[in-house]
Amino acid sequence: MHEELGALKKNRTWELVKLPKGKRAVGCKWVFTVKQNPDGHVKRYKARLVAKGYSQTYDIDYDETFAPVVKMSTVRILISLAVNGGWKLHQLDVKNAFLHGDLVEDVYMKIPSGFDTDQTVGKVCRLKKSLYGLKRSLRAWFDRFRRAMLGMGYQQINVDHTIFFRRSEGYITMLAVYVDDMTITRDDEKEIVHLKVRLGKEFEVKDLGLLRYFLGIEIARGAEGVVLSQRKYALDLLKETGMLGCKPVTTPIDQKFKLGVEVGEPVDCDRYQRLVGRLIYLSHTRPDISFAVSVVSRYMHDPRKGHMDAVFQILRYLKSAPGKGLIFRNEHMSIEGYCDSDWASCSDDRRFTSGYCIFAGGNLVSWKSKKHSVVARLTAEAEYRVMALGVTKLLWLKSMLVELKLDQGAKMKLWCDNKSAINIANNPV
Hints:
- The chain has helices at 2-10, 72-85, 137-151, 189-202, 231-240, 269-282, 290-296, 305-320, 379-403, 419-426; strands at 14-17, 28-36, 42-51, 88-94, 102-109, 124-129, 155-156, 163-168, 171-178, 181-186, 205-210, 213-214, 217-221, 226-229, 325-328, 335-341, 353-360, 363-371, 413-415.
- The protein has three domains: 2-214, no CATH class; 231-320, no CATH class; 331-426, 2-Layer Sandwich (Nucleotidyltransferase, domain 5).
- The protein is built from ten helices and 19 strands.
- It has 429 residues and is of the alpha+beta class.
């Protein structure tokens, strides 16, 4: 707690003033967490002072709050580019990132619990910098970071505003930021060292070396390439649910499943939503469970026993191979996609489910399993719609490579197994 308060004072986060008439001070609280390594050992104990931002009022205490965070598909694309180019991936962490953002509004906060003194009697903290918990904290921090990167000569790409790049002497440096975690790659090590030094002057940055653990995803390097997995995350999930000693199964969902709105016994809604939410995050490196997770997520508003049984089947499938993930190899730089769809598979409303997967540089970087909001009258219509969905993702990926000036001009391929849909696409007349 003293370490956190020292960082706040060093950053000049607030000043003590008397609360102006007609103003209201938001509260604050201490949040304690235990940071762990990928192997489960305690890394450090952390105390965070968090403002009770839920008591802020729009247009009085805060304004716009949106701030972008990097897409997981973008992170996978950068890893694929780095593997194919033979570049190293580095990781940085900004200490107390939200404390670097400048506040525009007047926000007053009560004195932190446990640190009242004679000097603080009748006074409040007038915040000059953003603080964790405030509505605009993330936006203020990202705006501060964006201005710093642009001042260093970096450009921000349009397809994903969290990617900054710079070209110099034929080399390219790319940086992706997710709140306070950064990933850097470049085909020249000198610029990476130079960038780390400049970022260290702007912010309090911690150099974590080569990329090994990013947002709960483990990155391992070998002779064949780079492997992404969430083994610890999967094992923790199995341990929390008491499924660590369960009998594994070979498929995440029954081939002839008949899951729909049921009138059976209801189950704990909070527990069901929490489990499905964790499975959704696990699917960032497990495309094999994407379809099963998309099915069980349809019933989060009113889960029944049959739905919970389907969730436990996914957990039993994870027990069979908790460390399964994605491998990125040095293959080629072509872009291709595969798409497929069923027809009227949902027993509740006869809507169809489609799926696609996109490969960049021979590596799987994006995938999706989605139930559509319309009813397809024939199979060709369902297949044509998923082709359109796949094409939009391909065009997004192409736009990113064009902006980064890494596109080699090769034609993209989209594979579909429905001749009617292909003929419609070839002859729109």
